[in-house]
Amino acid sequence: MKQLIFLVLVVSLFAGCQSVNQSARTVDDFNFGWKFHLGDEVDAYKLEYDSKDWRNAQLPHDWSVEHSFTQENTGGATAFLPAGIGWYRKSFAMPVAATNKITRIEFDGVYTNSEVWINGHYLGKRPFGYAPFAYDLTAYLNYGDVKNVIAVKVDRSAYLDSRWYPGSGIYRNVKLVTSGKVHIPQWGTQITTPNVSTDKAKVHIVTDVKNDLEEEKLIVLKTTVYFQNKEIGGQETALSISGNGSQKVNQKIEVLSPNLWDTQNPNLYRLVSEVIVDKNTIDEVSNTFGIRSFKFDKDSGFYLNGTNMLLKGVCLHHDGGMVGAAVPRGVWERRLKTLKEAGCNAIRTAHNPASSEFLDICDEMGFLVQEEAFDEWQNPKDKRNNYNQEAEEDVTKGYTNSFEEWAERDIKSMVKRDQNHPSIIMWSIGNEIEWTFPNYGDATGYWGKNKVGDVNYYWDEPPFSVEKIRSNFQNHPQGKYQVAETARNLSKWVKEVDLSRPVTANLVIPSVSNFSGYADALDVVGLSYRQAVYDYCKKNYPDKVFLGTENWTRWHEWKPVVEKKFISGIFLWTGINYMGESRAWPKRGSSSGLLDFAGFKKPSYQMFKTLWNDEPQVYIATQLVSKSPYKWDAKLHLLVEKEKDWASHQKWGWQEVNEHWNYSIDDSIAVEVYTNQEKIELFLNDKSMGIQSLASNEDHIIKFMIPYEKGKLTAKAVDGTESYSIQTAKEVQKLELLADQEEVLANSYDVIHYTLQLTDKNGIPVRNQELKVEFEITGPARLLGVDNGSSSSVQDYQTNTITTANGKCLLILQSTFEKGTIKVKAKAKELSSPELEVLVN
């Protein structure tokens, strides 16, 4: 999707800013013209500091992915990439016309422990790396020809401060906002749709208006609603605001025959708020919103616009593979589009607030979002214990040290910034918090001194009665902090900002949390890998709403959702492979995703595509029987599990399978067919290998065992036309290079994804041979990186060479401000691809 906003951007050579709006309010894109230095410089905040030798940097910027993977001063928890301390500086000019106005700088996220100065004046700090924040620059600015200097220090010297890859630097967008002194402050417009039907909807708007002048002002707040640039309603309210005062203005606008927002038709409206003084508009703010209603019912699940539906969700961390945490819009669009094609309709932002831009995309594409605030509260999750890392305690220190002081501000910042996104249907206050409080785990009977026999936490209901667990919990030392008390505070702070959405959390020990007071602070109780206790929870706590908020990518996690109306859906762990949470070198991250690090589809993706789609689906994966989880049962004439209950007890990831048909003659091959069709017939070189039904396979995977023979393997639906084939590939003879764009804008934002697939001379994909590929790149492009998708790859990202995995790799380029033609060619050994051209306008 092209960002039309950039058609009107003007580059300022001195300021490095791009003006987004030249009306009463100016919003300048502040991502350009920065200087960056890796390492601490104690005087870098000073106005007169000379940074001419620093390198140029475009924001968003993540310095960690610019480096090689290493085991020196890194760890698997954060993807074996270096951290440290970094400084950013930017010189800019302010027009004389802004002298009597208010100017602030808005950061959407800086990881982490940021401190900001303007012209040598200290503005403040923000410990939480995912919090959006702003500073008022007005009192310290120079206007006209005298330059201003903004300096930002980012301290991520604690390189194991997270359980996943967080990135390093100013990794999200920055804006400079100038408005009149009578204005709408940041996040000052709240839009809700409390009454919705297909006939009409009531849009309720609450607008903060602030007067920073000494004298009282009479103003008119004019609010107008647009749909597809057509005005459909509005309201004007006159009011008087005292000097240095502020007021909240309530307005209601009725929309007839509204175009409702949903997952299939994500219709968006635009609301424009104007502050008018003496008939002149002195401030103007535009907000996008959607008209929709939703609810969770304790017995029948989730409803969107009155229609009962299942949440087919995935959890996502915030990195984008090779681009790290500084993810361009186009990278997210490609990834989310692929998930959408599988039937995914919901996202949990695990385990932190997402970027504003990410949520814009969710609004536009029709994803339902659970936005999460925190992974840790007061007690830390020690990364050394989780990931077998030898490191000093100080390098694992993270947000828990700041939680007590900053939690209220940070969670309210998240809610205020994101409250108008129609995609968001839940606020999550925490992820698996109970692990860090011993009195929770020790009470259950699953662990510690109270453990009962071989009871398994993941597959068994609690071995004790509710009364026994309650007694164990109450008799255990409680510790300094109380989960229930903190949960009540967090929930209260959320609802002080927004009452239109439920509060949830991802509970990992619900057998305690449901009675301890923790669950009572929630409107929706999220369950983490606890499908074994769905019925237990419903039986013992029938008035609570339950939801699967973290689940394995397996059929046994989706099956209860289909069978139990009171479970609204699940969020798979995860939608996409992510960096971090590695326990061994060389492995850069978790391979639990439906998509790999490069955004390529994995076998688990194909499985869930069959579960989440009504359209006919058939897919084939293969493996040597000796390497598969199956064995041949001669009596049943079927492949059966080598280990009892293997399929129903699978956790993270997917069994090792191949998506090719290349083995040795007469090898015994296990063929897995993922489908939503009732019966499948397998053909090898047009000869039937038999028919099997989906109903006879409890793991929802149809399995055949056949001797390998070169040729073509086809799985075909018996009662339909849907089929899927794979063929034996010969030696690599071609490099098939494809680009996902033919034309991009010269805005220094748009991206092009180049996918390379090795093929034989007949164009059959070769997925069992690997080559080192070199990309030749000319034209106005910035190299963002290369990737092959494999979790065990620790090749550099920002290079033009990469060794393929499964015969595939990815190159991402980004446009610059220069117009022209980008030309890309791939080479490997004596092979060369055709040259692809992408026009940059």
Overview of the molecule:
This protein starts with 17 loop residues before the first strand and ends with a strand. Helix 1 runs parallel beside helix 2 (356-365) and helix 6 (466-474) packs across helix 8 (510-516). It has 5 domains: 4-60 and 84-157, Sandwich (Jelly Rolls); 189-289, Immunoglobulins (Immunoglobulin-like, Sandwich); 294-437 and 479-609, TIM Barrel, CATH 3.20.20; 618-721, Sandwich (Immunoglobulin-like); 734-840, Immunoglobulin-like (Sandwich), CATH 2.60.40.10. The model is unreliable at 1-22 (pLDDT under 50). The strands form 12 sheets. The protein has an 8-stranded parallel beta sheet. The chain has a 6-stranded antiparallel beta sheet with strand order 4-3-5-10-7-8, with no helix packed on it. Strands 43, 45, 47, 49, 50 and 51 form a 6-stranded mixed beta sheet that branches. The chain has 841 residues and is mainly beta. The longest helix is centred in the middle third of the chain and has 16 residues, at 403-418. The chain contains 11 helices and 51 strands.
